[in-house]
Amino acid sequence: MTKPKVIFFGNGELATAVYGAIKDQVELVFWAKKKEDLETVRELMNGSEQKIYGILASFGVLIKKDVLELFEPEGILNIHPSFLPDLRGPSPIETAILRGDTEFGVSVMKLVVKMDAGPIYYQEKLSFNKFTQKAEIYDALGRAGGKWLTDNLTNLPEPTIQDESLATYSQKLDTSMATLRPLEQTAEEMMDQVRAFAGFPKTRVEVFGMDCIIISAHLSNEPEAIKGYSDLSIKGKDGLYLVIDTLQPAGRKVMDAKSFVNGYGKA
Prior knowledge:
Blueprint: E1 5-10, H1 13-22, E2 27-32, H2 37-46, E3 52-57, H3 65-68, E4 76-80, H4 92-98, E5 103-110, E6 120-127, H5 134-152, H6 187-196, E7 203-207, E8 210-220, E9 233-235, E10 241-249, E11 255-256, H7 257-264
Parallel strand pairs: 1-2, 1-3, 3-4
Antiparallel strand pairs: 4-5, 5-6, 7-8, 8-10, 9-10, 10-11
Helix pairs in contact: 1-5, 4-6
């Protein structure tokens, strides 16, 4: 059986997961990873007499109408990690984690010029526990969307128009969000921030006068001391504690809490 030919658009965690799910079921013609690759896409599509499908996952580049039209009638198929029209935009998984979600969606939609507003071919929801790491959520959603797409690529259903009145939007992440705010956040909200900001923009806090990135942590009903130091237990506004397990002082390597206290603890 001949595999469908595909031009893949994407970069980052979601793209890696999606490609892992589709790679054995399709023939990859080209992988576009940056804006300059769109010219190669134009050349390939205009020069081909065979059907080529477009699949996109977290490309991060605006694709103009002239390129979209090359893939009609089904268009470029965008795998977006939310249950659209909820959480359109650049950081749906991170924003869902920050708001405390344990159920995450993935949508396969037709890419249009307006951000994440195209008609939907397929949607699915997956459940995770409260402490599932972001990378695992990215991988599971990407693979779920990719598997459905390759199972249905040559026989797509009629897409469903999104209800614009239900649209919500995820936020663009930047380093100004990175610092913990214990007086404003509960311990669970701080834990959600650590999970959501893993990789970028990362979660920061000052310990022993040092700017540190929190790599991993857990929740506790009481402060947990290491060699008499409880500085790595951060009290939230709810009275519970975020306890740092591993961290990275600015300009230094990642270390566990005990090694950090041994190296930098002070009276």
